[in-house]
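We now fix the convention by which a protein and its fold are recorded. These numbers are not coordinates but entries in a learned vocabulary of local backbone shapes. A record is reproduced here so that you can trace the correspondence yourselves:
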Amino acid sequence: MSGMINLPKLLGAAVAAMLMMPAAAGAVTTNVGTPFNKFSTIASSGTFGNNGGLANRNFINTFTFVITRAGDLAADFTNSASRNNSNGDIDFTSARLTGGSLGTPLSFRRLLGEPVSMTEAWALAQPQRIAAGTYTLTIAGRAYGAASTFSGNFNVAAVPEPATWAMMIAGVGMAGGALRRRRVTKAEFRWA
């Protein structure tokens, strides 16, 4: 049996060797820096981002949002950079929202960025109606310097239920009807 290969030991040694290797220069690192997610399930809104420590690398940050009610989603994010301090620049490469009621991922698009400005702003093209559920936002990019940071907003505006719409329409109709039926009284003046 001494000539037999111990497969579990061989696989364990290979995994250990891979973990000890330094990351390649172009490697992507997931959830590096100081990611934060201050999303409130009660308010269905909040902020997210990375407070730095991305340190000259390709990165992917993921953020999870638990939505408790259906609504219209508006989301955006931006980095802060200036031409005088290229140490804090981030070039985003993609941003996608998956999960929940989405059949296909929602892609964000760049609204502002290089070469016009070192500050990049990304957002959904238009508000998107989503249902309650768990959603994951994945943002990828390249950071230049330890001071690289970004932040964003994730807000789900409540959509009134059909019964609420019916009550509002009925209320406006009744108020309009009452105004229409109001009689105009003619004022009479008497001179003494």
